[in-house]
Specification:
36% of the residues lie in helices and 18% in strands. It is built from eight helices and nine strands. Pfam families: Hydrolase_4 (PF12146).
Length: 252
């Protein structure tokens, strides 16, 4: 039996029952559902069924995350989609950072998704690769965390203070897989990109926009937010745009 870890306060998963339109809301690498709750609540206010799961190894302790692999995070999303599919006829997916990467992964591997809304999604992170390369053969297990890249003063992201080096490798592997299959995406897409992002280079979103095969796609620039845009100055804009996108695409 592995060690048992307690879920941090405000890191719990959330589920808001609603109509036949389901929206999967995915948090990021080392982050928690706290970063996505505002968006989730705004979507629920429109009557949608909204599920914000906690990715395996997240919302507890960095040592817990260290024991997980990207396949575990994919499995977390697969389980969440199964839950939404029980009551919903159409599914949309949105996610921040690695949550955006997982959003893209879902679209690459399922033709059932009606639309995607990745937010500062990661598909290629040269600085992270460089950092991992410098640490992978050392005894260093953890480095300082990457949370709370937020422009608005006084706002904090609930995220791990330390990042497991092993988990960096998993994120890099996931990003490489997703990046290599972007052309498989044909579902409608609204891609959000902060113009200043200290975690994921903004050109990731441009590459996603240029590489996917969706005829219906839009790149929305977030001029007043850093990486954790769902907690930043543009959070209302993101919610408004997501609602409009879902209503336009949905047939229900």
């Amino acid at each position: 039996m592995g060690e048992s870890y307690q879920v941090m306060e405000n890191a719990e998963e959330f589920y808001f029952p609603g109509n036949k339109i389901g929206v999967l809301v995915i948090h990021g690498f080392t982050g928690t559902t706290q970063s996505m709750r505002f968006l989730g609540e705004k979507l629920a206010d429109e009557g949608f069924t909204v599920y914000g799961p906690s990715l395996k190894g997240h919302g507890t302790d960095p040592k817990d995350m260290e024991t997980t692999a990207y396949r575990d995070w994919i499995r977390s999303i697969g389980d969440a989609l199964e839950i939404l599919n029980k009551t919903c006829d159409e599914i949309f997916v949105t996610g921040l950072s690695m949550g955006g990467t997982l959003t893209l992964y879902v679209a690459e591997n399922s033709s059932l998704i009606k639309g995607i809304m990745p937010i500062n999604a990661a598909v290629h992170m040269p600085d992270l690769i460089k950092t991992h390369d410098s640490l992978r053969d050392t005894k260093t297990r953890f480095v300082d965390g990457i949370g709370s890249d937020i422009k608005q003063e006084g706002v904090e992201e609930l995220a791990y203070a330390k990042t497991p080096v092993k988990s960096m490798k998993e994120l890099i592997a996931l990003s490489m897989i997703v990046r290599g299959n972007l052309s498989m995406i044909e579902t409608p897409a609204m891609i959000f990109s902060s113009t200043v992002d200290h975690v994921v280079p903004p050109d990731n979103s441009q590459e996603i926009y240029d590489s996917i095969s969706s005829n219906d796609r839009e790149l929305v620039k977030l001029e007043n937010s850093y990486h954790v845009a769902t907690l930043d100055n543009d959070k209302e804009l993101i919610a408004e745009k997501c609602v409009g996108f879902i209503k336009r695409i949905s047939k229900i």
